[in-house]
């Protein structure tokens, strides 16, 4: 069997790895897999679209692949350069280099019989072709910059897309910098600009933003300084999966109740420790109340610009002053520098000026010297023609079309709070499993591991609200629910009896930690003997951090008690109903009718 992998970022590498190792897990011949990467290095966007002082917004614990971890000495949040080195080490560790072809651009992929024909060109070479049985498309979300032109923008001296920003020096001196966009990249660039010798920095948004810091904030109590020997617990490691996704009754998990409760708790905690529902400590750039719900938005996990955004906007009300005295997140000294948050401009005049409004409705005229388009990227597949399904047709978990398993899209979902690489690993495992079932009929076991839960459906998509549907337009998912859904589909979510049998540390990490991919290598078709060791060591060490009493109660203890109680009650009700149904069937079956017979003459 031959498989082409297009793209040498994290998604492509992990897909290649599982293809090359599939024969170790299943009774099949080794797969002939080739990875085509157009650039001269692997790493994708982490090599070519980075900037000064950048670091990942997802922690090393969640971002790392299940069976290859970061060094214990690596910081909780690595830089892009460190992550690219990790990917190179991953390729070396699993012997992937002989199957990777860099500086090789895929010109087009066309159907040929039941398979595919890949046309590619090496640097300085001529077009070549390779016939294969399946294609994994891993070309990435952040490749083609989403540039646009607005009336009068040509009158602004410097217009850059965020992908072109590399260092602070590009902003110039004593300049007015305007950033169009309010996502994580916009926040990072806003921080670079405000810490450069600029005159002013403004961030323009269309519908607001919602910051969720990547490290759990520890509030000061009565102004006492918080003393920490190490950074606090990463936010993406803080969700207790027990009764959040794991072992939650399906009816409860698919109901609006969990999201309603989390929404209230998140906003309530932010209000308690910072005085605003957004944030914490986000006083401007608010979303509308109709849209502002944690089940429907992408949370902005870059918060380095937030002190400069909120400075001068914090409430001076009696209530907020009292609350601040009792409990508040630490406030950073911005040395008088501020970032203005403004509405989206409609046009620029012949002098390059724009007229916009701030959060208070005040009209401002700004003449920018530099505009940065932090407007993201467009997803495109120029090498595919109309014969092939697009992302919109990938109706099986947004990975492949139910009509054609031989074409997989790996790494094209966006988690609200989480990371793409670990989700891509689970996607690759599921797609390859289904592909092998298709290609090697009868050779792949279809019986689920006896230690794994049977498959059932979860609610894993972000919800549409106020005219926004990020699931449909951006592939938005809830990381925890989507990861667990894929694990259930694969047959890799272990039963509680199995987890308990693996010891206290494994059990604690499973129950109280987020859905780290290593959890789903304990059982199932991709079972790996090293999973328990990682859960007992590295992952146990981070999960056992409390994150602070306020956060521990709000995000862990309270949801665990509430949803655990409800789930147990629902399971009991289901069990009783099942017993009653079974008893009724025993009574009625001997009579050969669908009813229990009553008195003589009655139906």
TrEMBL record:
A Pfam family cross-referenced in the UniProt record is FMO-like
- What domain of life does the UniProt record list for this protein's source? Eukaryota
InterPro entries recorded for this chain? FAD/NAD-bd_sf, Flavin_mOase, Flavin_mOase-like, FMO-like
GO molecular function per UniProt: flavin adenine dinucleotide binding; N,N-dimethylaniline monooxygenase activity; NADP binding
TM spans (from-to): 552-580
> Record's SUPFAM superfamilies?
FAD/NAD(P)-binding domain
Keyword presence, Oxidoreductase: yes
- Alphabetical keyword list: FAD, Flavoprotein, Membrane, NADP, Oxidoreductase, Transmembrane, Transmembrane helix
Which family is it part of?
Belongs to the FMO family.
**Name of this chain's protein:** Uncharacterized protein
Q: Which organism is it from?
A: Clonostachys rhizophaga
């Amino acid at each position: 069997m031959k498989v082409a992998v297009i793209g040498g970022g994290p998604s492509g590498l992990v897909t290649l790895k599982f293809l090359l190792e599939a024969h170790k897990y299943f009774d099949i011949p080794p797969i002939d897999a080739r990875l085509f990467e157009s650039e001269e290095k692997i790493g994708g966007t982490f090599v070519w679209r980075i900037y000064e002082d950048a670091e990942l917004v997802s922690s090393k614990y969640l971002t790392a692949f299940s069976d290859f971890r970061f060094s214990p000495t690596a910081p909780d949040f690595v830089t892009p350069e460190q992550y690219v080195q990790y990917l190179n080490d991953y390729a070396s560790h699993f012997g992937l280099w002989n199957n990777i072809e860099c500086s090789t651009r895929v010109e087009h992929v066309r159907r040929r019989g039941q398979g595919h024909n890949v046309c590619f060109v090496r640097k300085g070479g001529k077009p070549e072709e390779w016939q294969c049985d399946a294609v994994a498309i891993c070309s990435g979300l952040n490749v083609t910059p989403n540039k646009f032109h607005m009336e009068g923008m040509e009158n602004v001296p410097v217009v850059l897309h965020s992908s072109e920003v590399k260092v602070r020096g590009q902003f110039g001196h004593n300049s007015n910098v305007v950033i169009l966009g309010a996502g994580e990249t916009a926040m990072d660039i806003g921080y670079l600009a405000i810490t450069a010798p600029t005159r002013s920095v403004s961030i323009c948004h269309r519908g607001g933003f919602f910051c969720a810091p990547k490290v759990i904030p520890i509030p000061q109590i009565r102004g006492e300084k918080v003393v920490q020997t190490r950074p606090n617990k990463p936010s993406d490691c803080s969700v207790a999966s027990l009764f959040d996704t794991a072992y939650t009754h399906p009816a409860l998990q698919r109901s609006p109740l969990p999201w309603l409760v989390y929404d209230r708790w998140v906003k309530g905690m932010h209000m308690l420790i910072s005085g605003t529902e957004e944030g914490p400590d986000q006083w401007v750039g608010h979303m509308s109340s109709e849209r502002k719900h944690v089940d429907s938005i992408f949370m902005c996990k870059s918060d380095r610009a937030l002190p400069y955004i909120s400075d001068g906007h914090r409430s001076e009300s009696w209530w907020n002053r009292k609350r601040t005295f009792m409990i508040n997140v630490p406030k950073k000294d911005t040395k008088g520098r501020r970032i203005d948050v403004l509405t989206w401009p409609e046009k620029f005049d012949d002098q390059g000026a724009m007229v916009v409004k701030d959060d208070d409705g005040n009209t401002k005229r700004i003449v920018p010297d530099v505009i940065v388009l932090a407007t993201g990227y467009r997803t495109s597949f120029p090498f595919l023609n109309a014969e092939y399904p697009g992302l919109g047709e990938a109706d099986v978990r947004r990975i492949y079309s139910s009509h054609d398993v031989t074409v997989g899209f790996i790494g094209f979902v966006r988690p609200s709070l989480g990371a793409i690489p670990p989700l891509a690993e689970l996607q690759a495992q599921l797609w390859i499993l289904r592909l092998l079932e298709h290609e090697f009929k009868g050779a792949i076991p279809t019986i689920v591991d006896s230690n794994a839960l049977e498959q059932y459906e979860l609610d894993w998509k972000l919800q549409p609200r106020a005219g926004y549907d990020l699931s449909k337009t951006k592939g938005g998912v809830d990381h925890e629910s989507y990861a667990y859904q894929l694990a259930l589909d694969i047959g890799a979510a272990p039963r509680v009896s199995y987890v308990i049998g693996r010891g206290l540390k494994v059990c604690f990490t499973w129950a109280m930690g987020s859905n780290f991919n290593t959890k789903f290598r304990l059982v199932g078709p991709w079972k790996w003997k090293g999973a328990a060791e990682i859960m007992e060591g590295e992952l146990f060490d981070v999960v056992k951090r409390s994150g602070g009493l306020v956060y521990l109660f709000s995000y862990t203890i309270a949801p665990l008690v509430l949803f655990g109680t409800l789930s147990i009650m629902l399971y009991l009700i289901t069990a009783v109903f099942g017993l009653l149904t079974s008893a009724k069937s025993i009574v009625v079956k001997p009579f050969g009718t669908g009813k229990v017979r009553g008195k003589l003459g009655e139906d």
